[in-house]
Write a structure and sequence with these properties.
Elements: H1 21-32, H2 47-54, H3 59-66, H4 72-82, H5 89-101, H6 106-116, H7 127-144
């Protein structure tokens, strides 16, 4: 049964310092275990693809590795190995800036804030916080209410 809402935020990193990587790991891990909520893609085209591109890892290669059901630290070690022993710091900084600086469209922002019951006064604009609110609302609706 696919029912788990991924709650690791895009705004957190592991020891490598790559924002969104823990969330990507969680989503793909849940998908491989048959437990990812159907509203969430295991690997989507937004932040997920941005992470893979920054780490120079092809989607199919990542998916194949993730089938081994690695722990998060095993994933990071594999990424370092795939990158010849180190990850390009400048690419990570650029990725992290992109994740933190991404702004949803006005329409998407209004839809999310309306769904979570917050008046759109323009104070919440970044996608990371808006996505968190949406995840938490979906979690509450599916698991609590």
């Amino acid at each position: 049964m696919k029912n788990t809402i991924p709650l690791i935020t895009s705004g957190i990193s592991g020891p490598l310092g790559v924002l969104h990587l823990p969330r990507l790991w969680q989503k793909v891990s849940l998908e491989n275990a048959g437990k990812l909520d159907s509203e969430y893609p295991a690997i989507g085209g937004g932040y997920d693809q941005m992470v893979l591109d920054a780490l120079s890892i092809e989607k199919a290669t990542f998916e194949d590795f993730m089938k081994s059901k690695p722990t998060y630290t095993q994933l990071e070690a594999w990424i370092v190995d795939q990158n010849g022993g180190s990850v390009d710091h400048d690419k990570v900084v650029a990725l992290n800036d992109g994740v933190l600086g991404y702004i949803h469209t006005d329409e998407t922002r209004r839809e999310i804030l309306d769904a979570v019951g917050i008046k759109d006064d323009g104070s919440i604009k970044d996608a990371v916080n808006l996505n968190n609110l949406e995840d938490w609302q979906t979690f509450h609706s599916n698991e609590i209410a």
